[in-house]
Design a protein that fits this description.
CATH architecture: Up-down Bundle
Shape: globular
Number of strands: 0
Helix content: over 70%
Number of domains: 1
Mean pLDDT: 83
Oligomer: single chain
Distance between the termini: 5 Å
Length: about 400
């Protein structure tokens, strides 16, 4: 398929000096990802051990909410991608931001499992409609030459949000209790992300309605017949599963197995996310200069090499090494997928392509933490769970290594 961009819009997208609208787009990505991934995705696991201790739920149960919400909402990921392609990402993101805030506020008041699961459906809806997917489409529409750099800056929101939220959550919990901590975090999500998203534009000012009309001419059958799509799905699904299974169980591992204090556990998790900031900037910079396939292999290899270090968690200094290496991989893992997809399939179908990929990634992201928690509940250690995550990471690296090196903007 041959993709065309109106001349004026192309000038905007390739302008070396970012325009005010491009800065607004990048800032919107930063703040929405800070809120709906940094706070929500990395913040909720901080409360897992409180739910285990207060409600008597198992590790598998407290991680199952994430899986339940992801599976229910993940079934509609392709539809969400179509809606974003058809109507633009802005309105979809506004809905997602509200859902994210309501999910936290609801979780602050849960007393039973059915309420817990409903709140996690809201959380998954927020992630799908206000998180990476619409931001990837939005940034890809506004940037071409510096797309990797722009995506890296926006994705810093995930790292900074994830780095700060354990400390914020710990402070709020110490001063107000975990119920009020969740409610205040929910309000913070809405206050931070909603206003700037309200004022952002879906497309460059000179980009006419012709773009949307051209998008609809690209049949889904062409995408589904593309074998690189399946390699990208397998590779990203495996690596995302390894990342999610690790990060969602870290607080439980540190707090309940290693008997770390809340402060110690929060500090290690914050270090992981601090390292991810370096990873996002570095991988974004590399992706603008080298074939994205090789950058993707590097990222997935970092994840695969970091997880085995958890077997030696009681050795002094090893957890800090794990936090640094895993953080580097984490920083690039989610970001590199849309960059690779844009190279392979072009930006006109980004919503639909990423909708397909995120559907499968969502299943892996959902069940991986639950599997690791279940293996820990039925064993004496996390050894089996960590071994499963290592296998996932290695398989993902192999799948990505089979992707074509050159871009496939025409097929």
């Amino acid at each position: 398929m041959t993709l065309s961009t109106p001349i004026n819009a192309k000038r905007v997208m390739k302008n070396e000096k970012p325009s005010l609208d491009q800065i607004k787009v990048t800032s919107t990505g930063f703040l929405s990802l800070f809120s709906l991934v940094g706070i929500m995705f990395y913040g909720l696991p901080f409360f897992y051990d409180f739910w285990v201790q207060n409600f008597g739920w198992s590790r598998a149960t407290v991680t199952s909410g994430f899986a339940f919400g992801k599976v229910i909402v993940g079934l509609f990921a392709f539809f969400a991608g179509w809606v974003i392609d058809r109507f633009g990402p802005r309105r979809v993101m506004l809905f997602g931001i509200l859902m994210g805030g309501l999910a936290f506020i609801g979780l602050s008041m849960v007393t039973s499992l059915w309420q817990f699961y409903i709140c996690y459906i809201f959380s998954a809806l927020a992630y799908m409609t206000g998180g990476p997917l619409p931001n990837q489409v939005l940034i890809s529409r506004w940037f071409d030459k510096a797309r990797g750099k722009a995506m890296g800056i926006a994705y810093l929101g995930i790292g900074i949000g994830g780095m700060l939220v354990p400390q914020i959550a710990r402070w709020l919990n110490s001063n107000f209790g975990w119920h009020q901590a969740l409610m205040l975090l929910g309000i913070l999500i809405i206050v931070m992300a909603f206003p700037i998203t309200w004022f952002v534009k879906d497309n460059p000012a000179s980009s006419p309605q012709q773009i949307k009309q051209e998008e609809q001419k690209i049949p889904i059958s062409k995408i589904l017949r593309s074998w690189p799509l399946y390699l990208l799905v397998i590779g990203s699904m495996c690596s995302i599963g390894a990342v999610s299974g690790t990060s969602q169980n870290l607080k439980l591992f540190f707090s309940l197995d290693l008997k770390f204090t809340q402060e110690h556990a929060a500090n290690i998790i914050s270090l992981v996310l601090a390292s991810s900031l370096i990873g996002r900037l570095l991988m974004g910079w590399l992706a603008d200069r080298y074939p994205k396939k090789y950058v993707m292999i590097l990222i997935y290899s970092l994840v695969a090499s970091a997880i085995p270090l958890l077997f030696f968690a009681e050795t002094p200094g090893v957890l800090y090494l794990f936090a640094f290496v895993f953080g580097l991989g984490l920083g690039g893992d989610y970001m590199i997928i849309p960059l690779m997809a844009a190279d392979l399939f072009g930006v006109r179908v980004m919503g639909r392509v990423m909708g397909i990929i995120i559907t499968f990634d969502g299943f892996s992201e959902a069940f991986s933490p639950m599997l690791v928690g279940w293996l820990r509940d039925h064993g004496e250690t996390y050894a089996s769970g960590f071994a499963a995550l290592i296998i996932l990471a290695v398989v993902g690296t192999i799948a990505v290594s089979m992707l074509p090196r050159k871009t496939a903007r025409s097929s």
